[in-house]
Specification:
The complex is a heterodimer of chains A (418) and B (594). Chain A has 15 helices and two strands. By secondary structure, chain A is mostly helical. In chain A, strands 1-2 form a two-stranded antiparallel sheet. In chain A, strand 1 and strand 2 form a beta hairpin. In chain A, helix 1 runs antiparallel to helix 2, helix 2 packs parallel to helix 15 and helix 7 runs antiparallel to helix 8. The radius of gyration of chain A is 22 Å and the shape is globular. In chain B, helix 3 runs antiparallel to helix 4 and helix 10 packs antiparallel against helix 20. The longest helix of chain B has 32 residues. Chain B starts with a helix and ends in a 13-residue tail after the last helix. Classes of the chains: A mainly alpha (418), B alpha+beta (594). At the A-B interface, helix 11, helix 12, helix 13 and helix 14 of A face helix 1 and helix 2 of B.
């Protein structure tokens, strides 16, 4: 009989996550309260189930040492790749994304979206590789391993296709490279082809960007071939951008066009963004009251329990509610930065920051999308959007962070029994 | 990675700044949308969820001179649909067809209403029956975008008796909507179609109110009341008229079903119209909520033309009633005196040119003064008077007596009389050699020829006879009288004319049967050639125009019976009307010749 192992619990971290979850489930409940009832009305119960399951998982993970987590990293990553490859064959669609292959289903019962767990395993794997080096990568050559680790699952997920999750992977990649101490100039050089791709739609803007890039290359003085490669990559991206645009599916093109001007397609693709803005904007300071949002009640607001759940917050709880939600996210994020900066070792620190990067991209993209500050990509809001896998994965991440926190500097053992 | 605490701390600061900065930016963006631009989005959200359902305003009540109701409102029901597209309207109508009967005409009317104004609830049944309402209420759940509401419906208690006067209301037509005069009207609204309803549309219509229902994204009505405060409709202004409803009903009853023609009764001093009727009439209540095709066709194909207002629109040669005009013009020009005799006495006809101009009485009237000629309505006298005057003077006189201009009654559709305004008219009509001045003036001096007057126009002239040359504008609505002097005669001439008109209705005059016991009636018969023959005989229009009491005229009555034969028939009716109005029994009718 050994005494139960006692660790300190990072209360600010856990309480932030708990508050966000309770807030989120309350909004999922409200999302179901429509004048003409739909299946959404009972989803909050399912969400509570996944929340409880996530809490258990978080508790379990927090009992495991970081070393154990590091030990399972490689097998978990390989398993992730295998499952993602399998998905391309047996994956199922669901809900608003019925034609994709994001879901793992057995006998018609949808278990969940493996991509949510993949976010965590990729963070773990990337942390392991980046932590192995004493110093941060200094050249593009040294980046082939991290690029491969993120690139393989990224390609598999983009093939589902799931653009939103793909963007999260890119965010994780850059976030963790930043945390590994890579110089900002190098980060910029890596990012530059992507920037070129976006800016290529206006030749003059792209030209300005290209001159800026040349200046950077001359000033930073990378290896000659690296410099040539970066410049060439930018040129190629600029050239193929229009071709890439052509290869996009019409609905994807429409989404991007609507992002620039929602009124180009107010009935279809633009409808979501416009109605979301109407819902949020009409909320005012204090909102129309919990469950009382007319945009939501009368079904003007689409995907009110998933992608546009934050519009319900805006409509029913007003600017005050929105500020509260964002403040809770800020509390969670800043606490996670603290966890990452006080972690005992490089691996833990990178895992913590990777998880933060993933959440941050979700939150910024999802909330930005409701105000048309970001294009609509169908990315969920952590702790809020209805979706079991994501709730579960988020709490798994909280568990990992809690463990890292308890092992980190400044943590005192033996204070709380968990 | 570089894991030196200083490096980590530096990156942690950068990360904190980035996270904090981006989240603050988001809060700022929400502040801009939710607080600064709040009004704009609130408006859009209200537009999303609220649909305005018009509450029709009750029209103003129309009263007669003693406060009795000519037109009022009763409770009716309308059924409308709130739809977003023509397709969904069609689909809903198809489904409705399984619950209540909808005619193809109703379906196409609904479709065109929707196309005209998709934002308004589309009226399906402007005039739903109670049975339809109860069936629809039962199936409410199947038609979530159905709106049933009570709406005021026009009703005319006196029905056919007031139809020629009051007109009717019905849904505003495509033609009206295209008319700038009716700008602001929306499909499905009611509008006055004829008579007073049309003339005083702006006064009577009132202001439409609004009720707001809440709809969801699919256009289904989710909440019927309380979504937003109603805007109450405002009833139209009541219209007070000069009509004597009792007299109006009486006039209608005398005409009955057999007679066809028009009648006007008015106060000579003010022009206030006491009664105005055109027979046969029609039932205005059957026009409310849309007239049935069968009823409308029966009215349209009726040879007696019920929808043609014979008092306001009908133009008829005035016949002998016009001899007073000839006399007035001659007296004004000092061409004749009341006691003057014409060179040739009446022997039944007058020889002029190479033909004989007949008097109506083949037995002849002998030698007559002007007064006598009016009493006996002697054509031969007036042929000679006309020749003495000449065509130019007669035409000029007719024009200044108002026989070329509308009376200006407050009814739509008044027709202009036909009367030449200058000699040129004859040249244009017949060619310079196709007519002679003599023939024209002889015809015109007895009220035939190029002269067609409305009943109303004759009523105005006889009002002037009763009122020393002051002709009033006939007015149905009660407002300030307008009068103009159309001729000026000496008191002696006035009295002479009055005496002559009294003579007409006394024993020996042409309208002796029209005499009223206790009241002295002044008036003139007319028998006008209609140009219509039946069984080889010309069917004449019967006229009577007169006023009473002769010494203090309180009422002018003009009656015209289409194809009514001799003017005495009209005189009998007119005397009944006057008797009814002055509460005097008529004397037993003395049958006279001619």
């Amino acid at each position: 009989m050994s005494a139960p192992r006692r660790i300190t619990l990072d209360w600010p971290l856990v309480l932030s996550a708990l508050a966000l979850s309770v807030f989120g489930i309350a909004v999922v409940y409200s999302a179901g309260q429509t004048d003409v009832p739909t299946f959404v009305a009972r989803l909050y119960k399912v969400q509570i189930g996944w929340f409880v399951l996530g809490l258990c998982a978080a508790y379990g993970v927090s009992r495991a040492s970081v070393r154990l987590i590091e030990w399972v990293t490689v097998p978990a990553y390989i398993a992730t790749i295998v499952v993602l490859m399998l998905l391309l064959v047996i994956g199922k669609g669901a809900g608003t994304a019925a034609s994709t292959k994001s879901w793992l289903a057995i006998g018609g019962f949808r278990l969940g979206q493996p991509a949510e767990l993949a976010k965590i395993t990729v963070v773990m794997m990337l942390a392991k590789v980046l932590a192995a080096n004493k110093s941060a990568p200094r050249s593009l050559m040294e980046l082939w391993k991290p690029a491969l680790i993120v690139g393989v699952p990224w390609l598999l997920i983009m093939a589902q296709p799931d653009l939103g999750t793909g963007i999260v992977f890119v965010g994780i990649f850059f976030g963790m490279l930043f945390w590994s101490g890579i110089s900002w100039q190098l980060l910029l050089l890596i990012a530059s082809p992507v920037v070129s791709l976006v800016l290529a739609f206006s030749t003059s803007i792209w030209g300005a960007w290209f001159l800026l890039l040349l200046a950077l290359v001359i000033w930073y003085r990378p290896y000659l071939w690296e410099g040539v490669f970066v410049v060439a990559a930018n040129v190629v991206m600029g050239v193929i951008a229009p071709l890439l645009w052509e290869s996009l599916k019409p609905y994807q093109q429409a989404r991007l066009r609507v992002f620039l001007d929602p009124s180009t397609d107010p009935r279809h693709t633009g409808y979501h963004v416009i109605q979301s803005q109407v819902a949020i904007g009409s909320g005012g300071w204090f909102g129309k009251g919990y469950t009382m949002g007319t945009q939501k009640r009368l079904a003007f607001l689409p995907a009110q329990h998933t992608d546009f759940i934050f519009s319900v917050v805006g409509e029913e709880l007003g600017f005050i509610g929105v500020t509260l939600a964002i403040a809770l996210f800020a509390s969670l994020f800043l606490r996670t930065v603290r966890v990452a900066s006080r972690a005992n070792d490089a691996y833990s620190s990178l895992v913590a920051f990777g998880l933060l990067s993933s959440w941050f991209v979700h939150v910024v993209e999802n909330i930005g999308m409701t105000l048309n500050l970001m294009p609509v990509t169908g990315i969920p809001l952590p702790f809020f959007s209805y979706g079991g896998s994501f709730m579960f994965a988020s709490w798994l991440a909280v568990g990992i962070l809690a463990r890292i926190s308890s092992e980190g500097r400044g943590a005192q053992f033996g204070q709380f029994a968990v | 990675m570089s894991f030196h605490p200083n490096d980590v701390a530096r990156r942690a600061r950068a990360a904190t700044a980035l996270v904090g900065g981006v989240l603050l930016f988001l809060v700022g963006a929400f502040f801009r949308t939710q607080v600064i631009r709040n009004q704009q989005w609130v408006l859009q959200s209200e537009e999303n969820r609220l649909r305005e359902v018009p509450l029709p305003a009750p029209r103003g009540i129309i009263y007669d001179r003693s406060g009795r109701v000519i037109a009022e409102n009763v409770v009716g029901y309308t059924v409308s649909l709130l739809v977003q597209s023509a397709d969904s309207l069609q689909a809903t109508l198809d489904r409705l067809g399984g619950t209540i009967t909808l005619t193809p005409a109703q379906v196409s009317a609904a479709m065109s209403r929707f196309r005209r104004n998709p934002a308004r609830p589309t009226v399906i049944l402007p005039e739903a029956t109670f049975d339809q309402i109860s069936v629809l209420e039962e199936h409410r759940i199947d038609f979530p975008n159905l709106i049933i509401q009570s709406s005021p419906k026009r009703f005319y208690p006196d029905s056919t008796a007031v139809a020629p006067l009051v007109g009717y209301t019905s849904e505003v037509s495509e033609a009206d909507l295209a008319n700038p005069k009716f700008e602001g009207y929306k499909p499905g609204q009611q509008i006055g179609k004829r008579g007073l309803e049309r003339e005083y549309e702006n006064v009577l219509r009132g202001r439409e109110g609004s009720r707001f229902v809440e709809v969801d994204a699919r256009g289904r009505v989710v909440r019927e009341v309380g979504a937003r405060a109603d805007l109450e409709p405002r009833q139209g202004t009541p219209l007070y008229t000069n009509i004597d409803l009792d007299l109006q009903d009486y006039v209608a009853s005398i005409f009955g079903d057999s007679l066809q023609g028009g009648a006007v009764a008015m106060e000579p001093r003010t022009g206030g119209v006491l009664a105005l009727y055109s027979a046969p009439s029609w039932n205005p209540n059957r026009f409310i909520g849309g007239v049935s095709a069968s009823y409308f066709d029966s009215l349209r194909t009726d040879p007696r033309r019920p929808l043609y207002n014979k008092a306001v629109q009908g133009q008829y040669p005035p016949g002998s009633t016009w001899k007073l005009a000839t006399a007035v013009v001659a007296l004004e020009n000092n061409l004749v005196t009341m006691d003057e005799q014409m060179p040739q006495p009446c022997r039944g006809s007058y020889y002029f040119g190479n033909r004989a101009w007949k008097c109506w009485d083949p037995r002849g009237h002998g030698s007559l003064t002007l007064a006598g000629a009016i009493e006996k309505s002697c054509d031969v006298y007036f042929y000679q008077l006309g020749l003495r005057m000449g065509l130019s003077k007669l035409i000029a006189g007719g024009v200044s007596l108002g026989f070329t201009s509308k009376t200006g009654i407050d009814l739509p559709d008044e027709n202009r009389q036909r009367f030449p305004d200058q000699l040129q008219y004859f040249n244009e009509r017949y060619g310079p050699r196709g007519w002679t001045q003599a023939a024209a003036v002889m015809n015109m001096s007895i009220g035939q020829g190029e002269n067609s007057q409305t009943v109303l126009s004759m009523a105005r002239f006889y009002s002037a006879l009763a009122e020393n040359g002051m002709a009033p504008v006939p007015e149905i609505a009660n407002k300030a009288p307008q009068r103009t002097q159309i001729f000026q005669l000496s008191q002696a001439q006035e009295d002479g004319l009055r005496q002559a008109l009294m003579g007409v209705v006394q024993a020996g005059g042409t309208a002796a049967s029209a005499q009223i016991k206790g009241v002295v009636l002044a008036g003139k018969t007319g028998t006008a050639q209609s140009g219509t023959y039946r069984n080889g005989r010309e069917e004449n229009h019967a006229w009577f125009a007169g006023f009473a009491p002769a010494d203090d005229p309180k009422i002018v009555v003009v009656v015209m019976i289409e194809f009514g034969g001799h003017g005495t028939r009209a005189a009998q009716i007119a005397s009944k009307i006057i008797g009814h109005y002055l509460h005097t029994a008529t004397t037993s009718l003395v049958q006279t010749d001619g």
